[in-house]
Design goal:
Structural class: alpha+beta
Largest sheet: 4 strands, mixed
């Protein structure tokens, strides 16, 4: 096998990594704006958080979120420098990729063959710079960017932990890399920290890398110290409280398939079999210790996939790299090819997304903040006009005739929500979340009801303040997780005619009804009913 890189090859590898960042990041920037096609709810969730942070609010103190600050600070930093939110998101991706470059370079230089190093470099930087979360559906979306970033850090940290150096060994550098990765997990997407910490710690301990562990802990502590200095020590209790709230609520129990389906459903079963066979092949003589490490990491890989929208098994690429790093035997190569084939569509989709973004026809898009107070500052973020303006709802068919009324019982319809003596219709808003939000905010402004006021919305999303004269509600969550977080700080309670998330809507309406407050109706339109709180 290739024994690695000499100094000349290492310099060329660095040029390659920087070239990838320049190509993929440059294509994203060259468009002159950020264009997204899907996931309007996630889009509003992201933008509300970074807007609130850019204006001085802090996660866990001023609003509820289970996501840590490091998911958003790279974006907010560029907004503080005066960039619009679209350019700030792209520049944040480039900055994260540049942070990963020396980490990937060291990984390739110290542990991988030249071919494998180039492959890992592409995998890691594609995830950092992609403009879609993965899967095979071709579209553009910056939704769940933090999951891609976390996977990039996970690939590097796990490979550092489980692979022995070929010839370049420096435990301080290894510890720094692992520490940076776990800082992002702990203070960004903690799911990854919980999932991978046991396997990484055991792998390092079994390899006798105690200095790496100590250095990593120091780095995490330093990151924590900086965030504490910025936000204050109360942030940590708030962070813990937000995590406990989300873990205890049934508002959103999972992001996709159930765990049982993730283990046995046809689209996942072959990948799981590859994972098991890879561990067996390693344990039966190829590299027994690495086989044990893979067994320890496997539950975390599955759990992270379970927690992430789309249930995209990106870990298959990591498994392929791990086994190819120690052997090129026929069994290993066959398993690596199978793993790569199963996840190829996802990585190809991510790799080509910056080019698709560059070639996007702008005529089908509209500025997210057109006609709003943020139009000038953040006018570089665009969404598809047909998805903004086409407000579509879905409702169950109710049969009133004697001949067909039996279908109502067979359909097992949920009972109508009763509120303040009124039966509210059962329906779901499927499309047009941004358009409805713009219309509601405009109507509140024109009615003279919004200026300086705050509102709690009976739905998952309540970002109306971004589009008009309302103020953000202190303590409210950009994505509703339960417990009426922020309700007590709101002046108004707004009930949408058709919610985007009926189970959140029903939970909120029940909790508000149980409070027994005297609410005064102020305005009713086709889109919403507004109540004044006492």
């Amino acid at each position: 096998m290739d024994e690695g890189m000499d100094k000349s090859a290492a310099r060329l590898f660095l040029v390659y990594l920087l070239g990838l960042v320049g190509l993929l990041g440059g294509l994203a920037l060259a468009k002159g704006g950020l264009y997204v096609e899907r996931h309007e709810g996630d889009t509003l969730h992201l933008i509300e958080i970074v807007l609130r942070m850019s204006e001085g609010q802090w996660p866990h103190l001023d609003f509820v979120t289970p996501l840590g600050m490091l998911c958003f600070l790279p974006i907010v930093a560029f907004m503080w420098l005066g960039l619009g939110v679209g350019a700030a998101i792209v520049m944040a991706q480039i900055s994260v990729a540049l942070l990963l470059v020396p980490m990937v370079w060291w990984l390739g230089r110290s542990r991988l063959s030249r071919g494998l190093a180039y492959g890992v470099g592409a995998l890691v930087l594609v995830m950092a710079l992609a403009m879609i979360h993965g899967e095979a559906a071709i579209s553009l979306s910056l939704s769940m960017h933090y999951n891609r970033w976390a996977w990039s850090f996970a690939f590097v940290a796990i490979l550092i932990a489980v692979l022995d150096p070929k010839h370049s060994s420096n435990e301080w550098i290894d510890g720094l890399i692992v520490g940076v990765a776990f800082s992002f997990f702990v203070m960004g997407k903690i799911t990854y920290g919980v999932a991978f910490a046991p396997g990484v710690a055991v792998a390092l301990a079994m390899r006798g890398q105690w200095r790496v562990i100590a250095t990593a802990l120091v780095v995490v502590a330093l990151f924590a110290g900086v965030l504490t200095a910025l936000a204050g020590p109360a942030m940590w209790m708030g962070y813990l409280g937000d995590l406990l709230l989300v873990s205890s609520t049934e508002i959103r129990p999972r992001a996709g398939f159930s765990m049982g389906a993730l283990l046995a459903a046809p689209q996942f079963l072959l990948g799981n079999i590859v994972l098991i066979l890879a561990a067996v092949v390693l344990r039966r003589g190829v590299d027994p210790r690495l086989g044990m490490f893979l067994i320890l990491l496997a539950p975390g890989m599955i759990y992270v996939t379970y927690q992430n929208y789309g249930n995209d098994p990106k870990w298959l690429a990591l498994v392929a790299v791990m086994i190819l790093a120690v052997s090129r035997g026929p069994q290993v190569v066959a398993l690596a090819v199978a793993a790569g084939a199963l996840v190829f569509a996802s990585f190809f989709n991510m790799a080509t997304s910056p080019l698709r973004h560059f070639l996007t026809n702008e005529q089908g898009f509209t500025a997210l903040f057109q006609g709003t107070p943020y139009a000038e500052t953040h006018g570089d973020f665009y969404t598809r006009a047909d998805r903004v303006n086409r407000i579509m709802t879905r409702k169950p068919m109710i049969f009133e005739s004697d001949e067909l009324s039996y279908l109502n019982a067979l359909a097992d319809h949920k009972p109508e929500v009763e509120f303040l003596g009124e039966a509210l219709p059962t329906c779901l808003q499927e499309l047009g979340l941004i358009g409805a939000s713009l219309a509601i905010a405009k109507d509140l402004d024109e009615s003279g009801l919004s200026e300086g006021k705050t509102v709690f919305v009976a739905d998952t999303f309540g970002s109306l303040w971004m589009f008009g004269g309302l103020q953000p509600t202190h303590g409210a969550a950009p994505w509703y997780y339960g417990n009426l977080s922020g309700y007590d700080a709101a002046d108004y309670f707004l009930v949408p005619s058709c919610p985007t998330t009926p189970y959140a809507y029903r939970a909120i309406m029940k909790d508000v009804k149980d409070r027994g407050e005297t609410l005064t109706e102020l305005r009713r339109t086709e889109l919403y009913t507004l109540y004044a709180r006492p």
